[in-house]
Design brief:
Blueprint: E1 2-6, H1 20-30, E2 34-39, E3 53-58, E4 61-66, H2 76-96, E5 101-106, H3 112-122, E6 126-130, H4 136-140, H5 147-163, E7 166-169, H6 172-181, E8 187-189, H7 196-199, E9 216-221, H8 231-243, E10 249-254, H9 260-269, E11 275-279, H10 283-292, E12 295-298, H11 312-319, E13 324-326, H12 331-339, E14 342-344, H13 350-362, H14 364-381, H15 384-398
Helix pairs in contact: 1-15, 2-3, 8-13, 11-14
């Protein structure tokens, strides 16, 4: 089967970004399918180009790179322009590429444009993969306030969903949201997943810095933007500094985003020596950090749409058998409660988060208990091999 995927942020473990499409694609190639990915460069990805159009092949995956890079540090207008430009050129290449099925992986939601046009002219059906609920998320976060723009956004979303043969979500929360609004759609949930084998392999070429050795490390990975609300972690660090003497705690941020500088300034102003920022780190090096930590940290701004998220950091944590301390109120909270693989804390409660970090830094038995459950759920619910097989089987049904 020829599968073409339109996804603006494709990357491999050599980069510092989600590898969902790469991991699925290479497995499907291994089963004998032909895979083409139409993508563009992204600062956190390892896909780079000096040409406007470049053709690559990565582990049997054909990659068409269109040099219309997105960057979350740019203005909304600039990002919209680049996403539309990507859609225009990806439409051209999609119309030329032989396909049995197309997967449009959103966001941005504009990847639905080439998929829909290709369906009209080439009569090739498409699967619409939802990784972010849009425009609901933009509405709740206040990024789009004009009623007319929101009305257009929800209309576009409706068209892309209804014209697809299958809607695939990345979390249970996203699937429930879509089912509630579009009860007649065919939907499945293929969550982000655990690359268990990757996290069982230590990168011998990368060593942790000397200042991290012997510490109880608490790790935040990924984007550091407004919706991540990482100031909660800094506030917890301030509480720890004020209430605990001579702790062995080290909080490390790996990643980048629009709020990183503000967090660094807050750390400097409060003289919190046990908080460090490393910036972007290739995933092959990130593995060593996750394996070395006591727990990972997940925070988000207090908006209902963010309770539907399916962040890669959660699954990396489980793959390494590490518990997570998190603040969301949706499916992740329920899952962690039921499976006892982490700690839920209230949003914007520095004392509760600080106490949770402190408890895990002091109680090795409790960490071990949570860690065993984290590793168990990685195999039981989020094994990438099982989910990739389920995904391709569902695609074959609609083809």
């Amino acid at each position: 089967m020829n599968i073409t995927i339109v996804y603006q942020y494709f990357g491999t473990p050599k980069g510092s970004w989600s590898t969902r499409i790469y991991e699925l694609s290479r497995r499907w190639v291994g089963e004998g399918h032909e895979l083409t990915v139409i993508t563009s460069p992204y600062p956190k990805s390892d896909i780079k180009t000096s040409k406007f159009i470049e053709y690559l092949e990565i582990e049997g995956i054909k990659v068409i790179v269109i040099n219309t890079p997105d960057n979350n540090k740019k203005s909304i207008a600039n990002r919209i322009y680049n996403s539309l430009l990507f859609s225009v050129f990806s439409t051209y290449y999609l119309l030329k590429t032989p396909s049995d099925i197309v997967i449009a992986s959103s966001g941005p939601i504009t990847v639905g444009i080439p998929a829909l046009i290709n369906k009209i002219f080439n009569r090739i059906n498409y699967v619409f993969e939802v990784r972010d609920l849009w425009p609901r998320g933009a509405q709740e976060l206040g990024l789009i306030k004009k009623k007319l723009l929101l009305k257009i956004g929800f209309w576009i979303e409706k068209i892309f969903y209804e014209k697809s043969v299958l809607v695939v979500t990345a979390s249970v929360g996203q699937q429930l949201d879509i089912i509630n609004r579009f009860p007649f759609l065919k939907t499945i949930n293929v969550s982000n997943a655990c690359d268990i084998k990757m996290f069982e392999t230590v990168n011998e070429n990368y060593k942790l810095p000397h200042w991290a050795l012997g510490k109880s490390i608490f790790l935040h990975t990924g984007s550091i933007g407004l919706m991540n609300d990482c100031i909660q972690i800094i506030d917890a660090a301030k509480w720890i500094k004020s209430n605990v003497k001579n702790s062995n705690i080290l909080i490390v941020f790996i990643g980048d985003g629009s709020e990183r500088l503000n967090l660094e300034n807050a750390v400097e102003e409060n003289n919190i020596e046990f908080v460090k920022f490393l910036g972007l780190v290739p995933k092959i090096e990130l593995v060593n950090w996750v394996n070395a930590c006591s727990a990972t940290l997940l925070t988000s701004a207090n908006f209902p749409v963010l309770d539907t998220i399916s962040p890669n950091k959660l699954f990396d944590s489980f793959a390494a058998g590490k518990p997570i301390i998190q603040t969301t109120e949706g499916w992740i909270k329920e899952f962690i409660t039921n499976e006892e693989c982490g700690i839920n804390v209230k949003n914007s409660n520095p004392k509760e988060m600080g106490n949770s970090i402190l408890k895990l830094s002091l109680d090795d038995d409790y960490v071990s208990y949570l860690s065993k459950n984290a590793k168990r759920v990685a195999f039981e619910y989020f094994d990438r091999n099982k989910l990739a097989k389920y995904y391709i089987d569902e695609i074959l049904k609609v083809v």
